[in-house]
């Protein structure tokens, strides 16, 4: 069994805790997706979630948000479109860009995944009282505000 590297300070401990929580949370989301027998990958679900939250976004918007390569995103978008979960429309101002929208089936899948995420989050956060949850949300928002979108 590998030995654990001890954190050298509070920042290291925060990063280790966040990493462990996100790893476990994503693992549970992937398990839920396998059980739901979805026709898409976890990354494709993340793309769909972003598009559902930001209707009309472009592949460029997705690339900036996710840090992913535009080519990879184009393939993910194409598969989501083939599965009937996304649709593209011409951008009103930029002929090179296409706006992305979730279809009715995409919205339904988005609702299922959002419900699963909420259930997992409730299971995780029920260890904290309402005030602690609000404090955690505020601190995480403060950290997130310090990084690029």
TrEMBL record:
It comes from Azohydromonas lata. It comes from the Bacteria. InterPro entries: HTH_MarR-typ, MarR/SlyA-like, Tscrpt_reg_MarR-type_CS, WH-like_DNA-bd_sf, WH_DNA-bd_sf. This is MarR family transcriptional regulator. Keywords: DNA-binding, Transcription, Transcription regulation. Residues 11-145 form the HTH marR-type domain. Pfam families: MarR_2.
